[in-house]
Every structure is written in C-alpha cells, then in structure tokens.
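Hmm, how's this folded?
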Amino acid sequence: MHSPIIKPYPITRSLIPEIQEHPIHFVSAAITPEACFYLRNHFAYPRITGQSFVLSVGGEVQKPRTFQYEELLRMPSKELTVPLECAGNNRELFRPRVFGEQWGAGAISQGVWRGVALRDLLRLTGLQASAKEVVFEGHDSGRRPDLEGEFVFARSLPLGKAMHPDTLIAYALNGEPIPYKHGYPFRLIVPQWYAMASVKWLRSITVIRNHFSGPFQDIDYMYYPEKDSDTRKTPVTTIQVNSIIQQPLNRSVLDKGMHLIYGLAWTGTGWIKHVEISTDGGENWRPAVVQPASQNAYSWTFWNYTWLADQKGEYTMMSRATDSFGFVQPAAAKWNRKGYGYNAYSVVHVQVE
C-alpha cells in the first residue's frame, strides 16, 4: 500500500469574514501554493457581476476613463514576485496583549503577480496638477462595530507610491487569473507595504487633491503607541525587517546530534543582507547561511544554520535579520494598541534529550 500524502492546511481564524493563516512552518516553497495562501477579509465576500470586470479611473484627472478587463489584458504587463504580509502578523505575541485577530506567524504568503503598472493607467487619464493621493475602492463592504452605517473597503496611496513602476493593477496570481478569494478580477499590489494597501476586488480608482480619511485609513492601520490616547499616531506603511524560524517548532524535543535550523527573512526596505542565529538565548550570535540575493527585488529570503546539539538541556533559539538599509530586527517589538508591525526576534524553545 502507498503511504498517504500528508499536506499542510490553512489555520482558520474566522469563518465570517473568512480569515485563514498560512501554515508557514510546513511550507518551504518560494511561491506559496494557493491552497495555503493566507486570507484576511474585513467583510463577507462580494458578489461578482458583470460590473466587476470594469475599472473606473476618475477624480483629479484630465480624461476620466473606464477600463474593461479584456482591455487590461492587452496592455503591456509585468510580473513580480511579492510577499504579502498582514500588518497584524504575529499579533498574538504582543505583551501586554492587544485586541484583534490573534494571528500567529502565518499572516504572510508569497506569489507571482502579473498586471499593468498603475502609473500606465494614470498616464492614460492624465493627472491634474492638484493630484495628491489616489483612492482605491473594493467591491467588498459591510458594517463595522465601532461606526454607524455601511462601509466599502477603501484605502489611499500618496501619489509617489501610486506612480512607482511596480505598483500594479494585478489580474493574475501564479500564472492563473487571481482566485476569487484573493481579489478576482482586479487586485492592487503594492510591493514593500503591508498588505492592507493591496486592495482586493478593485472597482474604482479616484485621484484626489486632499487626504483620504476613510476608517481603514485613519482609524485602522495606524500605529497607536499610547494605550488610552490617539496622540503620536502614525500610519502603517512599509513592512519592517523580519525573520521566522520555521523549524524546529517551538517546544520541540530533539535528539542529541546535528540539526538544521531554517526559516525565512523579509523586509520592505532593500533586501536581506544577514541573518544571525543564537542558540543560547541571545548571549552569542552566529551567521546563518543566507541564499544569494534573488533577482526578484521583493521576494523573501531563505536561510539555514546547522547546529550541533551535543549536550542535553533546554535551549532558546533566536533569529534576527538585517537588511541592506541597515535596519535590524529588534529584540522587542514596539508595542502599539492595535498590534501592528510585530518584528521582534523569532524565538523557539527546544529540549535536547
């Protein structure tokens, strides 16, 4: 008899709206399989109708236009390997604890996205001199517990980020049309920013002359450093340098001998330059083997370290990454009231017998 094929499955955090975590400790592929790709929704899934295949561009533009799905498919395109990380990834690790989806380490996945550069669409419509931000609305909508009325998921980008050549209106993931649950037929992809910026089920693009202040812009996805005050709040934008020990798992029992410690590192600024490993709780650090810099400017990086466990006992393993801009993963994450941007050392406790 053949042995059964054992596959990892996503971890369900919520059913309505559907929220699922990538089983990151058991998937070592450069490209996350669709079945394991994490899901973060704020509302129930939208209905896909004929209108879903039309994308309007208006506001502070010279020639407002409506783009058809087939029209975008015929335009010059580009393909980018981009990890998407939820700003709340690893929220469960903040101390003191914070409210919100209690993500573990799996609110991140990586895919190959194909689409049209947003700036190509904006050049076709032309920008008014007054243009300041670009607002993106999805087809998904619903109610929030903190506000009256119904809201569409909408976010904005400053004009500079919107005009970056790699900010995409994507229509394909891993060589196929974007799956329905990941934003079919159009999804904004914003490399190097946390994934709240990559609006799904995109229906409209509006250039505005002022600051957009929707609830998913100025209430959610803000860093609030004070527990009981909104003072010093700042917007969540660029992904912070980070790493994860995928194996061994936390609280594993290991035999004496050689063990491969391995994992991932990623950043929103530049590329991963170093990963260091400690097996004694941070007293000493040694360089891990980091895969050569990828030709894909934004992709995550694999690393590994071979450890000789020659003494019985309990050990605390840690990983920390450094990127090409000199940003170093800190020993402790900056606490904030909504639990965004956790990037403290990855910590794993093991026992050797």
Remarks:
- The first strand starts at residue 11 and ends at 14.
- The chain has a mean pLDDT of 96.
- The longest helix spans residues 118-125.
- The chain has four helices and 24 strands.
